[in-house]
Specification:
Length: about 290
């Protein structure tokens, strides 16, 4: 019988995964540093255990009877004195070692689309080091590589609130971000699959210009997009490397680098960005 241990349960994707696991009636142990954040998931099949993935001693005994581990563990912004290597790599290594010791059958890890091409970025380097370890662990595994989340697009929506969106270059780079609920469906399906790597994006391939237009329309604002020379994006990365802290530079480097690329993955799901934006605007206006 499948029994899932979910690490990263309190994050954006983690909460969607919990809802999906409940919908599938899959027994689940969710581990969290702050369990009270999961109090709304008062379901018979969900067991919440307090643990810190960066502290291997708190993980002891939690994997007994577990058949599948799903890890969404990772940080976008380095905080609490923790680095990408501390969390995206070492914390996941802690989970992997405990899973192997307990005889867990499968490990599902959520990484990033194109991470293997961007190892020079701090966050991708940490994630890909763990992917390497997972590949050679001897355990059955799946690495899920999603495109950007809809939640990552909220900065554009916030800009659009003021009536103007700034983009680098001509704004014609393409991507297909995905809703967390659609991604959760993909991840749960991989429990019974043998694929070692899944690339996944949302249903619509959009240019940066189209995303800006959708964001502006969500607020009822006219289509006002300002295109900045792409050299500013490149120069910002260079200057940030020199003049900002590692804590600040990491996420800035990641997002600015990806903004200069087409990021397209196989399309999946039914939830569309315009509906996500409309709901966010409605929530903000309440």
């Amino acid at each position: 019988m499948t029994h899932v241990l979910l690490a990263g349960a309190t994050g954006y994707l983690g909460t969607h995964l919990l809802r999906e696991l409940v919908a599938w009636d899959i027994p689940t142990t969710a581990i969290a540093r702050t369990p009270h954040k999961l109090s709304k998931f008062d379901f018979e099949k969900i067991v919440v255990k307090q643990a810190e993935v960066t502290n291997v001693e708190t993980l002891k005994g939690l994997f007994d009877g577990i058949s599948t581990v799903i890890s969404t563990v990772g940080i976008t912004r380095q905080k609490d004195g923790l680095t990408y290597m501390d969390v995206d790599y070492q914390a996941n290594m802690n989970l992997l070692e405990e899973a192997k010791e307990a005889g867990v059958k499968k490990f599902i890890y959520v990484s990033a689309l194109g991470g293997e091409k961007f190892r020079h970025l701090q966050i991708c380097n940490a994630k890909e080091r763990f992917v390497d370890a997972l590949r050679y662990s001897g355990m059955n595994y799946t690495v899920v590589r999603p495109n950007g989340f809809y939640s990552d697009m909220l900065d554009v929506l916030q800009m659009a609130k003021n009536g103007k969106v700034y983009l680098f270059g001509n704004g014609e780079q393409k991507l297909n971000p995905i809703h967390g609920a659609d991604l959760a469906e993909v991840i749960i399906n991989t429990i019974a699959m043998n694929e070692h790597e899944i690339l996944v994006g949302g249903p619509d391939i959009l240019t940066h210009n189209e995303i800006a237009e959708i964001a502006l329309a969500s607020w009822g604002n006219p289509n006002k997009i300002v295109h900045l020379p792409d050299v500013i994006r490149s120069a910002t990365i260079h200057l940030a490397r020199i003049f900002t802290s590692e804590k600040t530079f990491g996420p800035l480097e990641f997002f600015l680098t990806l903004m200069g690329q087409d990021m397209i993955a196989p399309r999946y799901g039914t939830r569309r960005l315009q509906d996500f934006y409309k709901q966010e605007v409605k929530n903000l206006k309440l």
